[in-house]
Amino acid sequence: MSKKVVLAYSGGLDTSVAIQWLKEQGYSVIACCLDVGEGKDLDFIKDKALKIGAEKSYMIDAQDEFAEEFALTALQSHALYEGKYPLISALSRPLIAKKLVEVAEKEGASAVAHGCTGKGNDQVRFEVSIKALNPDLEVLAPVREWSWSREEEIDYASSRGIPVPINLDNPFSIDQNLWGRSNECGVLEDPWAAPPEEAYELTQALEKTPDQPELIEIEFEKGVPVALNNESLGLAKLIAKLNTIAGKHGVGRIDHIENRLIGIKSREVYECPAAATLLKAHKELEDITLVKEVAHFKPVIEQKITELIYNGLWFSPLTPALKGFLNETQKYVTGTIRVKLFKGNAIVEGRKSPYSLYNEKLATYTKEDAFNHQSSVGFIELWGLPTTVHSAIHQKGKVNA
Amino acid sequence: MSKKVVLAYSGGLDTSVAIQWLKEQGYSVIACCLDVGEGKDLDFIKDKALKIGAEKSYMIDAQDEFAEEFALTALQSHALYEGKYPLISALSRPLIAKKLVEVAEKEGASAVAHGCTGKGNDQVRFEVSIKALNPDLEVLAPVREWSWSREEEIDYASSRGIPVPINLDNPFSIDQNLWGRSNECGVLEDPWAAPPEEAYELTQALEKTPDQPELIEIEFEKGVPVALNNESLGLAKLIAKLNTIAGKHGVGRIDHIENRLIGIKSREVYECPAAATLLKAHKELEDITLVKEVAHFKPVIEQKITELIYNGLWFSPLTPALKGFLNETQKYVTGTIRVKLFKGNAIVEGRKSPYSLYNEKLATYTKEDAFNHQSSVGFIELWGLPTTVHSAIHQKGKVNA
Amino acid sequence: MSKKVVLAYSGGLDTSVAIQWLKEQGYSVIACCLDVGEGKDLDFIKDKALKIGAEKSYMIDAQDEFAEEFALTALQSHALYEGKYPLISALSRPLIAKKLVEVAEKEGASAVAHGCTGKGNDQVRFEVSIKALNPDLEVLAPVREWSWSREEEIDYASSRGIPVPINLDNPFSIDQNLWGRSNECGVLEDPWAAPPEEAYELTQALEKTPDQPELIEIEFEKGVPVALNNESLGLAKLIAKLNTIAGKHGVGRIDHIENRLIGIKSREVYECPAAATLLKAHKELEDITLVKEVAHFKPVIEQKITELIYNGLWFSPLTPALKGFLNETQKYVTGTIRVKLFKGNAIVEGRKSPYSLYNEKLATYTKEDAFNHQSSVGFIELWGLPTTVHSAIHQKGKVNA
Amino acid sequence: MSKKVVLAYSGGLDTSVAIQWLKEQGYSVIACCLDVGEGKDLDFIKDKALKIGAEKSYMIDAQDEFAEEFALTALQSHALYEGKYPLISALSRPLIAKKLVEVAEKEGASAVAHGCTGKGNDQVRFEVSIKALNPDLEVLAPVREWSWSREEEIDYASSRGIPVPINLDNPFSIDQNLWGRSNECGVLEDPWAAPPEEAYELTQALEKTPDQPELIEIEFEKGVPVALNNESLGLAKLIAKLNTIAGKHGVGRIDHIENRLIGIKSREVYECPAAATLLKAHKELEDITLVKEVAHFKPVIEQKITELIYNGLWFSPLTPALKGFLNETQKYVTGTIRVKLFKGNAIVEGRKSPYSLYNEKLATYTKEDAFNHQSSVGFIELWGLPTTVHSAIHQKGKVNA
């Protein structure tokens, strides 16, 4: 009986060829395709795997799990790698790894396989996640291993009857899920050149966005977006809807030269209309509901979670510890944010919360009570004391001179 | 002979009344007005002080010093307090304090005075700075001390012949310099309400900005902006010019509910067209010229400098230490950034640098040399090892079951 | 009916005088004395309050709560302020504040009072804690308010029949609880002079400690010390016992010039035999049970908790968030540590844990499996890549020259 | 003409065999041995290389450079990896790499070689450093490459006439320099067992240390130790002398289970009498000469430098930036520290400095001036305001109930 391998299958040329290649290595291949909101025809992909030679083919709807566990963590962490990249692919990789391992354990497979090359971050995210979830599974990376040129790969495909897409000269390499769409490749490599308009799909060019702003209201409960324009929605649906609305106004384009984990700089173009809008709205709600000490320390946690996810360590024991912190901070992040979408901007215009630490009554209270002359005088005296003492010691001569 | 006091004079009602009030306390008053790019008629203000009763009146042009020392530090630190506020007033306070102390030492004054109330951050910034520069000087805060109502203040002014402005019902409290304009007050206090259009002055409303984008090029040398659209300019002039250009496109409006040092949340509206544009451009130039370790650690330094400046500790000995770090990182931040200004957006479209760590030749080099199969395999194996070992220990039973 | 105040009563001169002084201000005084392991005769103190004039007197045994909530948090956080001070008094203040507020709410008091002066940290800890727990309670600080000289205080006491201790020339100011003993005052103020032997009470001078080492074993379960030398003990009892054993060997003397919150440097002498021993043992158990990422990030959390507690912010909403992180990390901190106590040293000689990530089997496993030539080669290549690229760009000329 | 390689030669079996092995690969071998204070007979080693077959043999005295650049940075950074390991070998590796590159450039060699295996940190430190200094040099790691068993290596040596040491059953693997001595190996691997006495060489067992304490005085100028017991000494000599004095009292033994960069935990035994004493003394001098803000932020920089050095990134551009910070902080770290060495303890008993921010005069000054009732009252009110407001909002019902 042949060894079984579970392959993360996308329907593209690389993983299609991988099915055949793995069979030739003596494996029985189980294809596994996840729906994390990439907007492809997944039933077609599921069937394609079988046609090419997979023994079995899974199509798993993981949109809710992706939204509620992965995207939500990124949202509440205000996760922007290097201040710019909202962790789109980095969020789906651990979820895909988890599903691959589940299928492998159910099917009694001894290995799992992914279609990443040796130059990117995703290979790290897949392999570390899989090892974390089941250290006994072997991980295969056919594309990295065969290291063919594009021509060699096409020759192999043709000789085995694997369909080769006609638009092979598409210069882009795309990954997409609910949290956004990433795009890298040849034409983007000159950092002095602006990305071509064809690089974008989820967002309108600013020149074509509506000339009227659109006001939306997002409601949060304990840090979770629960309603859009007064309509209660599950998180996955809310994100999908917001992608359409905010994308129409050109919100969420990102052009980023980033430091990959594996040591090189790469240029990436991202689109994330919903993520960009939600990240702003959530932060503004925190601005009125978190006390200063929490607001000022939370970014340290945020940066660490972001780095951890980017670097493929979602399943490290550090993640639940960081989430232990995060969860505590979201208790009172409840309220409504009004956002104006217009010409690529998502402008927060209004915020309200039953737990607002900023309100008229309080302002009056503090005016009368706390802000008398003496409080500030005493505060300033002690706040500046170390600096004053330092000056007194080090400027002795100077002052008297 | 009467004691001398040097007063930070703005020309407004508060500090005009303070001249008289200080005289009644037995002081001889030396007014001191700084030009840090606020765009007022400063000669008029200088004369006004004398008319009201100051013994002497200074008008000091500090635009270059403000730009080259204070704004530049903020730029290179990517200083945004709580991720939003670019430290406009917080940057001018230590410079004004420095000039007040210099004048006080020159004139043999025993005290300096400022016009801040007891509710804001600026009182802290003035007083800690003055004490740091000369611990022997007394600091007076007449407005905080007399604690009059608006009516009482006007009565006092009228009875002493001090001119009372006619637009006293102006609901805003403004401070402006080269780095931007800040605006707080009554009408802004409802956080659910958008700021009224009258709150803004440096920036066009998005609805009225040009329908054609404008492309600009900013050139940096060792982290310093030195030319705009190929015209070499001193920093103060470059900022002033960019304020006009970017302001026309509505760039740099900020609506921020922030945590003041003295413990309350306040709502502020800022405009900073040049700062917003330069901050983006500088960051993008760093993205291609700094190695990953520097890029990832620098934000820790940036956050500390930002906090220090916001909290009035510019003259703490911590500042030169942080700048010691900062200066080293700017050595190779040389190059040109192309920015598209359009409908409130400052979009970096192109970057180039003689020190770029991202370029074609290198990409080719790394492709051939570094990114073979084995490098990534080995890297991932050791990178994920702690997580793998943790799983092997903690999932012993599970995996075999 | 007179207003009621609950006074934190220690039995010393200051708070004894405060009972009378508060009565003269029109208050009915309820004395409240906590047992947090200070080793005093608390029944005597309880009675003394009544004799001096308190209307009621509480003596509350809070040793277990102190140990299990406050000392344990400090232990698991490896809390050492400025790397030296294990937060002795800083830990008891919030607990005392909590009890004062509980008594005040039960008795319908409108105010609580403490005996701190205006120069220390403890006034901050008491007042911020009380305000956090019940913002409506007034806080009184009689000693800070009356600001008498020692002589004036004694005159007042004598005239009201309040007993004045005979050893008033005792130069030390002491505070003690289970987690240690702190000592500040006059004779310690010269930082070039060693503290006199009389400053210490819980620890033997090194010159007098036993000439034979003593080996002890401490058992932890999920980060909590649960047994000492194979005897299961509640945490309060375990700490008390360990104070005796480790104190005999001179463990835990600290001589610290520290930065107080209120802006001055002060010199303090601490003794904490149990805390010093437990802190070392707990850290070593973490060294074998935590993965690297957790071990390297936890100190950031530790430093923040330490700072928060020192600065009187135990009841800030930041504390539960930090504890949310902390709790997650303690899940597997289970095992036994063997410590050699000898001549002031607490030397960890052995560690074992069912969850050890360091063990023979694993060493063998990793040797065979992970550490082949290629893994390290690939790792090093990518690890050093940013530095290599930086050199390649910046040393172009040099290398070929 | 054969290719040239510069080999880091230690005189031990591994690098002796490497000379022969490299020759058989077609290299002409230049041996290079550095004196960084390891206390070996280096002339003997230099000659041995030639006898075994090296074409040339260098012996470079690098003690001063090691002390003044590498050990001093570690001292001023209070560098203790994971709170325990003072970076002994991690400090010498970049210096050795630098000398190897210098010799290679001078001799026109195309490669350098080191004797590390594939399981440790040192291979990373060597290779990243060499690539940083000259990206064109090839790096060879013969021991990692041949991956022989001990027996195979001895067979190879015997067959080539390379002398095999008689004490090959020595279970320890030692590295030593001025900053200390590290020791790993077989017998140490059981973490429950104490290290055997034979593992130590620089320090007396506590049981055998003198029964009289020894008082020493260390003088610092701008953060640099310049005199010991009033004798001015160069840093290398001062460290060497202090190793003898403090070692006699058993100071500086460390038993550490640490996380290596390459992902495993290892157990190491270190001895560092001078380093342990200097680290304590330097920190105490900073305690009286640095203001609070600097003292509280410097540990962030310290931890980063420590991590960087441990991880082999000494020549990263991040290092000079961190040193830019560090240097600024050392300006006033001038003064004298008195240390009592006794039974394994290095106890700081006295500190004095012309720049002390803690002194009698100041204490009096602040008592009279700063610490009046009102300063603290105002400070506490504003310090605790966020927490108070949070409580007021969240406990509304509770308090009135």
From TrEMBL, chains A, B, C, D:
<dbReference type="GO" id="GO:0005737">
    <property type="term" value="C:cytoplasm"/>
</dbReference>
<keyword id="KW-0028">Amino-acid biosynthesis</keyword>
<feature type="binding site">
    <location>
        <begin position="8"/>
        <end position="16"/>
    </location>
    <ligand>
        <name>ATP</name>
    </ligand>
</feature>
<dbReference type="InterPro" id="IPR018223">
    <property type="entry name" value="Arginosuc_synth_CS"/>
</dbReference>
<feature type="binding site">
    <location>
        <position position="182"/>
    </location>
    <ligand>
        <name>L-citrulline</name>
    </ligand>
</feature>
<feature type="binding site">
    <location>
        <position position="270"/>
    </location>
    <ligand>
        <name>L-citrulline</name>
    </ligand>
</feature>
<feature type="binding site">
    <location>
        <position position="115"/>
    </location>
    <ligand>
        <name>ATP</name>
    </ligand>
</feature>
<dbReference type="InterPro" id="IPR048267">
    <property type="entry name" value="Arginosuc_syn_N"/>
</dbReference>
<comment type="pathway">
    <text>Amino-acid biosynthesis; L-arginine biosynthesis; L-arginine from L-ornithine and carbamoyl phosphate: step 2/3.</text>
</comment>
<feature type="binding site">
    <location>
        <position position="121"/>
    </location>
    <ligand>
        <name>L-aspartate</name>
    </ligand>
</feature>
<dbReference type="InterPro" id="IPR048268">
    <property type="entry name" value="Arginosuc_syn_C"/>
</dbReference>
<feature type="binding site">
    <location>
        <position position="117"/>
    </location>
    <ligand>
        <name>L-aspartate</name>
    </ligand>
</feature>
<dbReference type="GO" id="GO:0004055">
    <property type="term" value="F:argininosuccinate synthase activity"/>
</dbReference>
<comment type="subunit">
    <text>Homotetramer.</text>
</comment>
<comment type="similarity">
    <text>Belongs to the argininosuccinate synthase family. Type 1 subfamily.</text>
</comment>
<keyword id="KW-0067">ATP-binding</keyword>
<protein>
    <recommendedName>
        <fullName>Argininosuccinate synthase</fullName>
        <ecNumber>6.3.4.5</ecNumber>
    </recommendedName>
</protein>
<dbReference type="InterPro" id="IPR024074">
    <property type="entry name" value="AS_cat/multimer_dom_body"/>
</dbReference>
<feature type="domain" description="Arginosuccinate synthase-like N-terminal">
    <location>
        <begin position="4"/>
        <end position="163"/>
    </location>
</feature>
<dbReference type="GO" id="GO:0005524">
    <property type="term" value="F:ATP binding"/>
</dbReference>
<keyword id="KW-0547">Nucleotide-binding</keyword>
<dbReference type="InterPro" id="IPR023434">
    <property type="entry name" value="Arginosuc_synth_type_1_subfam"/>
</dbReference>
<keyword id="KW-0963">Cytoplasm</keyword>
<feature type="binding site">
    <location>
        <position position="122"/>
    </location>
    <ligand>
        <name>L-aspartate</name>
    </ligand>
</feature>
<dbReference type="InterPro" id="IPR001518">
    <property type="entry name" value="Arginosuc_synth"/>
</dbReference>
<feature type="binding site">
    <location>
        <position position="125"/>
    </location>
    <ligand>
        <name>L-citrulline</name>
    </ligand>
</feature>
<feature type="binding site">
    <location>
        <position position="85"/>
    </location>
    <ligand>
        <name>L-citrulline</name>
    </ligand>
</feature>
<keyword id="KW-0436">Ligase</keyword>
<dbReference type="GO" id="GO:0000053">
    <property type="term" value="P:argininosuccinate metabolic process"/>
</dbReference>
<dbReference type="Pfam" id="PF20979">
    <property type="entry name" value="Arginosuc_syn_C"/>
</dbReference>
<dbReference type="InterPro" id="IPR014729">
    <property type="entry name" value="Rossmann-like_a/b/a_fold"/>
</dbReference>
<keyword id="KW-0055">Arginine biosynthesis</keyword>
<feature type="binding site">
    <location>
        <position position="173"/>
    </location>
    <ligand>
        <name>L-citrulline</name>
    </ligand>
</feature>
<feature type="domain" description="Arginosuccinate synthase C-terminal">
    <location>
        <begin position="172"/>
        <end position="388"/>
    </location>
</feature>
<feature type="binding site">
    <location>
        <position position="121"/>
    </location>
    <ligand>
        <name>L-citrulline</name>
    </ligand>
</feature>
<dbReference type="Pfam" id="PF00764">
    <property type="entry name" value="Arginosuc_synth"/>
</dbReference>
<dbReference type="GO" id="GO:0000050">
    <property type="term" value="P:urea cycle"/>
</dbReference>
<feature type="binding site">
    <location>
        <position position="258"/>
    </location>
    <ligand>
        <name>L-citrulline</name>
    </ligand>
</feature>
<dbReference type="GO" id="GO:0006526">
    <property type="term" value="P:L-arginine biosynthetic process"/>
</dbReference>
